[in-house]
Every structure is written in C-alpha cells, then in structure tokens.
Amino acid sequence: MNSTRPGPKSEARSPKSRICAICVICGCLLSFSCFKLDSFLFDPTTVDEYLQMSSADSAAWHVRGIIPDSLVEPVTLTGLDSNRVYGFFVRQPAGVDVPATDEYTVIYNHGNGQNINRYWGRVELLWEAGCNVFIYDYEGYGKSEGSPSGKACYADADAALDSVLARPDVVGSMVVYYAWSLGSFMACHLAADKGSFKPRCLILENPMASTSALAQEGAVLGIPGSFVADADFDNESRMRFLGCRTLIIYGKKDDTAVPERNARVLLDKGYGWLPELIDYPIEGANHSDLPEVMGYGEYERVVRAFMADSL
Amino acid sequence: MKHSHLVLAALPAVILLAVVRCGTVTAVAPLHRGESALAASLGGPVASVAGMNIPMPYAVARYRTGLTDRAGLYAGVHLLPAALGVVGVDFGFSYHFLEQRGGVPCVGASAGLAAFIQPRGEKAFFPQLDLVGSYRLGDRFTTYFGSQSMYQFKYAPTVVLAPFVGGEYRLSDRFALDLELKWYAMTEPTHPRNLNYKLPIGNHGAVGVVLGANWSFGGKHE
Q: What is the pTM of this model?
C-alpha cells in the first residue's frame, strides 16, 4: 500500500503533459479506426456452377434431387454497383393439384453460410409444399459478383423482389417472404422498408434480432450494434412495421440464434403491431435441423397452413 | 448453417468493447496527496479465438491522482475500442476507508462511469463500482481481492459482477506489476451464447487473467 511503502521523496511532475500524451495516442488509434466486423457476419463460398454438389454435400444438406431440371430457371439480377446476382426460380409443374397453395411464390432469403447449394434442400421442401420458390445468392455468395455487406444484401433482396413481381407467372398477392437466420434481416427489410408492396405473409425461421443483440450477447452489457457493424441489421426496430402476418418458427435448443435473445425478442417487439404474429417453438430443434426434427411432412404442413391462414 | 460459421466467429472482438470489467482493479491502494500514477493493463476472460483459448487482449491505460492520502480521482482510456472507431473512457473517484492493521486489510472503493462513444453515433454508459481489500506482505508484495461491478440501465437492467484476486509485486518504490485472476460476469450463464467463453464456473461467466503495470510519480512518497 502506498501509505506504508518505503521510498525517497520524488519531485512532483506536471501530469498535464502525460495526459496530453495519452490523448495523442488515442487520437492516433482513432485515426486508424475504420475496422468493423461486418465481414464476419457473412461466410460465403463461391462456385463455378450451381447445383453440382458432391454426394457428401447433398447428404449433409439434405438435398434429395426431387425437382425436375425443367422446373428450375436460372435468373440474373442486378445488385449494388451493377454487380450480377444469381438466383433460381423454381416453379410448380403445370396442372399440379395442391389446393390453396399452388399459386404461392416464396422468396427465400438464405443464411450467412455457403451459397444456394447449401439451401437447396430447403427449396425442395417448399416446392414440395406446393410453392413456387425464388432463391438468390447475396453478393459474394456462389456466383454472385461483389462482396457481401448490409447495403449489398438489401439491394440484392430489393432486386429479387422486383424480379419476382415482374414475372407474369407470379401473383403479387400470393408472394411470401421466407428467411432463415441471417436472411431474416433481408426479409424484414423487404417487409418493413418496401412500403409499396406487402407480402401475403412472412415466415422467419430461427431469426436474428439485430447486430445490437448479437453484440450484447457476446459482451453481456448493452452495446449498440453500430459500434461493431455498419450493416443496418435491426429486425427489432422493424418488427412493428412489417405490416403482414408473421410466423416465427424456431428451435428451442437453438444455440446459435438463442431464442431468448432473438426469436422471443422479436415476438415481444411485434405483439400488438401486426395483423397476426405466431410464436411457433419446436421442441428439441437447434439452429439448422428444424425441418428434420419436425419431420418433413409436419414442416410442410405448418408452412402451408400458415400461408393459407389456417394454422 | 454450421455453428462454427456463425456470424459470431467475430464476437471475440465485440467483447473487447465492454467486457465486465476490463483492466486491472482501479485502485488497490491509495495514493498520497499530489501523487500520481500511470497504469496499463492487458487481459480479459479466456475465450476461443481462431482455435486458441486465450485471454481477451483488452488494453486499458489509466491515470490516477491523489487528492488526499485517502481519496483520489482516476481516468482511463480503453485502447482497443478505438480500433472500432469507438472512444472508450472511464473516470471516477476512489476512497480508502480502512488502513491495514493486523488482520484488517486496507479497504477501498471506487465509483465511476465507463463511457463508450461513437463520434457522430451512438453512446453507451455504464456506472461502475469496485470494492477492494489488500494486504501488504513484506516490502514488495501486496495481495488483493474484491469485486468489480458494472450497471446497465438502458436495456434490461443488469448488474454484472466480477470478483477477483490478485497480486502486486513492487520492482522498485515507484514501479509495480500486477497479476489478477477475475471471474467475469459471474451471474451470467456461459452457454448458450454466441461467444465461446472458456473457463466458466458452473456454466456461469468466464475466468480470465489480466496483467498490469503501475508507475507512480510526484507528490509525497515515503
């Protein structure tokens, strides 16, 4: 303790100069302070050709190969800075008899990993449920040009919606937004920020609440998301503006987008603001295995029923 | 999406902003009136970063000055938030109300505010309170213990506690090194969480290590 330790008396020095030195050091650090964590939000892989997965990948991603090639149409969009963005429109076979859902078109906003290939098994499920499905890769994913960012992803989602609505074989009032995990930011952006068009409904699977929620979860205390990321990923503030029926379906054991800090936060933000908001927890499911835990038949039934407003 | 692919591969960096609490304890022992000290510390809770389990390298530089032989002021800058364009500072008041006498330790408290400010952006403020007891053991070594806490009011009201034990070894009468073991966020569940903290105790918080150095100058120095 200072009060008892021995030592010679020293000359007093002005602390002012030392404080100035500290300020200068901090100033220097700040002058280099353009580092953000946005790039870590995305984990894309690129491909030369889509849908040429190895059997191991197909098995891991539950791709069954059930959609005939003739029903899969490659689509090219224009993203941010005129980057080419790739997607696929998967349509129902003509004459298929799936009452009440045969005209639904799902815009599928995928998660942060890999590319369209990884989500093809999910496209198959929605197609099997009787929906047309449009899936697209964000910039930097798959064959899409550019690099992923919040702005780029939102621009890509906007382009995807415009492309779908421009199709003669799509009924605008039957368009559904579907999102898994990180894709929830894009789906909520489309629903909340594109006021000129409202989807029939929105389905969020294991959604994320916001970059602030992600930061708070790691740092324990409340850290604004803008401290760590430039991306305007904030579903919490968008929930009340979605303006459409919304289903939030999530695994109760999700240890990636932990429900207490994500799905349930969004539910709390949305109650009372939306025409309908359904809380649909799945016992035993984690972040990536929700359809498998539910069973494909039950998953498809729930999705189809919600679209038909009969869940 | 594989868990390992998650966003939050990066969250070790996020923790650099507001890990509770950062740096070594603010004031183990009082400064004399007019005496000042500069301290630097590095460390944090152990987490998995790029496959390695290491203490978070949170760096803090602090200035302290003695107003009386018991009371003092402190101000610190948090260096790593600057890399994210965030000004991180803390400042406050410390007071030592017991001197070491026999089995009674020297006991003090520090109260202050940690502020993280994004120029032309958002801000976050966290009141903080430290309690520390210390025993001087011989001429060079002081052992200390206590608890740090931070308080959040803006979102869900939260108190985050970090009890610690440490040792200070005096290399000269003006220069000392500190080693501190801290149980960060002892009341918070460790899993599930998007950051892979290691060394929890009963799935709560994470144990971490902080190294510090202190250099005192000026004032009366016995």
A: 0.79
